[in-house]
Please model this.
Amino acid sequence: MLYGETATANDYLTTKVARPSDYWFHVRGGGGAHVVLMTMNQPQRVQMPDLIYAAQLAKRHSSQKHSGYVSVDYTLKKYVRKPRGSASGLAVYTHEKTLHLEE
Model:
């Protein structure tokens, strides 16, 4: 599992390191780390505890880290892209699922 601590690191992680079959996580509606859960080309073998841990990591490294309730979106990296000419760290995604975390 990897995450970016800066916008530049997020860009690098999302566009250069993550593979299409890896899971990508980000808090919904806020700034924060891009988290990549590497799947070794077997995303179907990832278990729910791993997804929850990755979502917690995304929350911990986000602007919403002190919120009691946070939604974290995740999708396969093949559904994530960086718009041409966009600011560092910006990504758009589709086919997401959402995990809702409460303290």
